[in-house]
C-alpha cells in the first residue's frame, strides 16, 4: 500500500497540491469542489485526507496517516509529539507568529491579559520572558479583543499586517517564523522508509 497523506484545509492545501502534483501525486477529484474528505491519488497508489489544520498532527501521530503537511504553528501548538518527525520545510505559507497590541498604548505592569488561539505557544513564549500572563483562548478575530477591553495584547499569525492596522493594532515582538512542514509518523518512517524517502527527495527538488 502507498502512503496515506494528511493535508491541511485552506490556503496550505491550495499551495501544496501543485507541489504534490509535481511528485505525480494528485487527488482523483478536486478537493475544493468535492464534499469528500478522503481521496485516492489518480495513479491509485496513495490516499489523501483533507482535514482541519489542528487534526493533521493527530492523524500522523496516531498512525492514521503516514505523512502530514501542515503549518509550523500547528506543530508548535500541538506540543511535544512522541509519534512523528518533522522532516522538511516546504517553504510555502510563510508568515510570522507575533505579539500585537493597540498602537501607542504601552503594556500594563503586572499580569498581562493575552488573547490567542495559540495558547500553548503563547504560554511558552511568556514563560521564557518570565512574564506573568492571563491567557484568553479565542478561536478567531483576535484583533477585536483589545478593542473591546477583553485583552491587553494578542498573539497571532501576521502576514501583511493589514488586519492589525485596520483594527488599530501594531505588531510588536516576533515569536517565530512560520512555514509549511512535512511530518511523518515514526513507525511509517521504518515500515515505509523507501516511499517516505522518495517523497521527501521529490519534494526537495520542487520546493
Report on this model:
With 207 residues, this protein is of the alpha/beta class. It folds into 2 domains: 4-93 and 179-206, D-Maltodextrin-Binding Protein, domain 2 (3-Layer(aba) Sandwich); 97-177, Periplasmic binding protein-like II (D-Maltodextrin-Binding Protein, domain 2). 31% of the residues lie in helices and 31% in strands. It has 8 helices and 11 strands. The protein has a 6-stranded mixed beta sheet with strand order 2-3-1-4-11-5. The protein has a 5-stranded mixed beta sheet with strand order 8-7-9-6-10. A hairpin with a 6-residue loop joins strand 2 and strand 3.
Outline the secondary-structure elements:
Elements: E1 4-8, H1 11-22, E2 38-40, E3 47-51, H2 56-61, E4 67-71, H3 72-78, E5 84-89, E6 95-102, E7 112-116, H4 119-128, E8 133-137, H5 144-147, E9 153-158, H6 162-166, E10 169-178, E11 180-185, H7 186-191, H8 193-206
Parallel strand pairs: 1-3, 1-4, 7-8, 7-9
Antiparallel strand pairs: 2-3, 4-11, 5-11, 6-9, 6-10
**Helix segment tally:** 8
User: Main sheet?
Assistant: 6 strands, mixed
Shape: elongated
Q: Considering DSSP H and I runs of 4 or more, what fraction of the residues is helical?
A: 25-40%
Alpha carbon gyration radius: 19 Å
What proportion strand?
25-35%
- The CATH superfamily name of the largest domain is Periplasmic binding protein-like II
Q: Mean of the pLDDT scores?
A: 95
Low-pLDDT regions: none
Total domain units: 2
* Order of strands in the sheet with most strands: 2-3-1-4-11-5
CATH class of the largest domain: Alpha Beta
